[in-house]
Amino acid sequence: MSIAQLQMVADWENQKEQKLLGTFQIAQQYVQQNKQKLSGLEQYRLDYLRQAQTKAKQGMAANTYGQHQQFIGKLDKACEQQSKIVSNAALVADQRRVQWLQQQKKRKAVEMLLAKQQKSLYLKQEKQEQQMLDELSLQRFVRQSPRY
To answer: Is the pTM of this model over 0.85?
Structure first.
């Protein structure tokens, strides 16, 4: 594979890595957004529970108390569902991170191979230049040496 072809592969691998990094970052943002939703929901549940307890201490009808308890139960379920969403989102984000890191390894391997080939080509060119310089020096020496 030529250096130009290998450079194309390196560029392509880099693009793939950048796309995977983007999807990983989006997945992380999704996790954070859903954690914030869960936190807000839990805070709302806690506030509502405190209000219901305050109203219960002041006295309320049994059916009103039952309605409050039902709503708190719904909030509990919503918190459970949101917690599951957060867990699933975290799993997806972790999978995206693994994919990105694997792609990063591929890119680095291609770049190392490219650097190795570039170094090899450089050394080959240096050797050819040195041989040409040696040849020129030898020719100059032969021309300048006295003839018997």
So the answer is: no
